[in-house]
Design brief:
The chain contains 4 helices and no strands. The chain is mainly alpha-helical.
Length: about 80
């Protein structure tokens, strides 16, 4: 979904941006990624308002937050490591 959000921003596709941000927001909330949800809601709102000019910095912040989650999961749950 992050790739689709990035592509929507690059293409200037506000409807697709709103749709994909909404999906990822729901999935993030369901997984307890609370720091990511407000950022995704802002991105979704930018899409709904067709205001894409400031979506990129929000997307980069969402990417940073998702990376924090990935690192945490890898460190604490040993996911993706072969023994």
């Amino acid at each position: 979904l992050m790739e689709l959000i990035e592509k929507a921003i690059q293409a200037g596709d506000a409807a697709k941006l709103r749709q994909q941000a909404h999906k990822l927001c729901g999935a993030s909330a369901a997984c307890g990624m609370t720091h990511l949800v407000p950022i995704l809601r802002q991105i979704e709102q930018r899409g709904a308002e067709e205001r894409l000019e400031d979506a990129e910095p929000l997307f980069q912040e969402a990417r940073r937050q998702l990376e924090r989650v990935r690192v945490f999961v890898k460190q604490h749950f040993d996911i993706g490591e072969s023994k």
